[in-house]
Amino acid sequence: MKKSFFSFNFLFASLLTLLFFLPKIAVGKVPIPADSLLGLYHPWRDNAYDGFNPYKFPTKNPLITDPVLQIYPWRKLVVENFKEGNLPLWNPYSFSGQPLLANVQSAPFQVLNLLFFIFGEKLAWSILVILPPTLTSLFMYLFLTSLKLKEISSIFAAFVLPFTGFFVSWFTWGTVITAAMWLPLILFCINKIFEKISPFYFILLIFAISQTIFSGHWQTAFYVIFASLLYFLFVFFKKRLKLPTLLIVISIFLAVLIASIQLLPSLEFTSLSARQFDQGYSPARTDWFLPSQNLTQLLAPDFFGNPASYNYWGIWNYAEFVSFIGILPLFFALLALIKRGANTTFFIVLAALSLLFALNNPISKLPYVLNLPFISSAQPSRIIFLLVFALTCLSAFGLEAFLAEKSKKKLVLPSLFIILLICALAFFTYLGRDFLPKVQDLNPVRIALRNLILPFLLSLALLSIIFLRIIKTPKKLLIALIFILTIFDLFRFANKSTPFAKISDIFPQTSTTNFLQSTSRPFRIMSTDRRIFNGNTSSVYNIEQVSGYDPLYLKSYAQLVTAWQSGKVTSPGSFNRIITPEDFSLPITDFLNIKYIVTFDEISKPEFTKVFEEGQTKIFENDNVLPRAFIVDRVVKAQDESDELAKIIDPGFDPQTTAFSQDFEYTVQNNKSEVQIKNYQDQSIQLETTSEKAAPLVLSNVYYPGWNVFIDSQKAQLLKVNYIFQSVLVPAGTHKVEFKFQPQSFYNGLYLSAAGIVLTIIFLFLLWKTKFQS
What we know:
Elements lengths: L7 H19 L2 E2 L3 H7 L25 H18 L6 E2 L6 E2 L21 H26 L4 H10 L4 H5 L6 H5 L1 H14 L3 H16 L3 H22 L2 H17 L1 H12 L55 H12 L6 H14 L3 H8 L14 H21 L3 H24 L12 H27 L4 H23 L3 E2 L8 H7 L6 E4 L16 E2 L2 E2 L5 H12 L11 E2 L8 H4 L2 E6 L8 E7 L2 E6 L6 E3 L2 E4 L3 H8 L9 E4 L4 E2 L5 E9 L2 E8 L3 E8 L4 E5 L2 E3 L2 E3 L3 E6 L2 E9 L2 H30 L1
């Protein structure tokens, strides 16, 4: 009987995945590290939550902070813009302003964003985090059954994949797993298209590839596309069918064309970003490639401890290196290696290639030595995603072999190998205890040996299952034991690392945020400590700041902040993606419209007045702050970039009367002027200027391609002053001036995406017509 596409088995693997989340959801908790926000950062830390006193809120996993410091704030801005009928093009709240849509991780076109239009913001985010591992199981099941594997083997591996080390480490990001989940679906479509040319599978393929690009994490998307192309070639050389091959190539082209609306703005932003000097890699770094000793985490994920237990003693950081897939799945993967067949070849090759590029060796260093664009700034250890995917697929083949294998030797050898590895690891760890790193308040030997106990016990349990298999115990009982042990192993691992929080704990209001929100925009704040409004957290409350946290930030802004902080013009080093200017003593502070300094310390300077205090967090008002837009008396021409930077960080700089530019100079004397802000939006600023004479108007917003200026609805020339800020010459009299963000890269991408959609419809219609006529 023909199996229904939406059979119970199709859903069963996903129901197992949901089983992990349901107990927490039942008590009103969702997977987001809001505990790190309340427990580590101010002003939230100054408040009491859920019965915990200020400064006492527990943080489950201090390693997981990026979802609340980066991803959630960006996604909130994207959705708010869409709901207001605006395109989410510009983010004014971090780095004194930078692109939003062009920021890959903002993921404006990720399909799961539709959840925000159905549910409330915080609930939608929670579902967005839960759905990707659930869909991963669904797609994995489809792919493995398309390989003609039995359903029980497919369900097993489909359940395992979302709970492997890579997936669990990135559960709460809302970007990485949403990229990774499309890989099995793409491979499923390739299999089906080579079997039968159907418009349905082409729709799925084009959608899956484009969504991989839209997912919000291009490094993972790159690995998905790389593995997909590799598999495509593998199937092509196996079947040698020309028509499916041609149609798949066309589908890939159409998917990339549809993604142009994201690709073009992001490529432009990347070309102007600090990635060229913020490469991250250096030969001295031990945390760049996968350290070979971390392969022990295939057996014991917490051999080096766990950040969630506050006892991690290995090379930082844990999430980048953990390749755990579970003891039983590892056994089945090893069994598949022993029982090598034609269908396992691809996964063995993929696992080998993943290890080759993850570990430190001459081949894996090549992209960084050659400084290849994009690849050279990406941490290579993350390719363990493909390793755990390949091993999980092999585990499905291994389980099938286990249930059919008659040779006792082939069944026992892999399990004995695992047990011997664990014993050897324990022995050499104890033997070399004096050579392990000395970590304050931690005992690495005790941590490592203790965390080998459970893998050892599970290996013994596995050996017992093998014994039951040899004495011909009913297969249903064996399968039940295998699933029970695997669920226990993987759920325990995932539960230990994954933070959950009450929905009410996601960015709650505080007295500090209320005070700042009560002040009319526009203005900016400066934090003197990264523990206050860290990352992009202030943007959740629509509060602009000069700092920010992002893998992509403008090179010019980085250079400005470096000069500002050091007091001299110098090339920036790596900022570790976080830029936090803290020197408020220079006139550039006034120019940047920094109205409030948020600090732990008292400020004795007379121009700063304390206006608010909550717990340890204090707010001082800058009495010398300049408005966001004003008219100056003169623009002095700078010789070059270094000269211009040196002038604006000079303590004698008077930003109220003078600006600097490499492009033009202008002087006006005895002028009376006034600038009023009529309407201030994220990507549109409407002003009214009154000036006795023609004069330079300065707007202390970052200059970026796509910003245009209009005077009385007529386009004018946008000028750049004070290194990276905006200016325009306004005529004498009263005029309406509007600054608009209209990036050509976005509109070019929009036109190409529209063309891609039209061509896809034509392509699918021709496929359907051909099929119908056949």
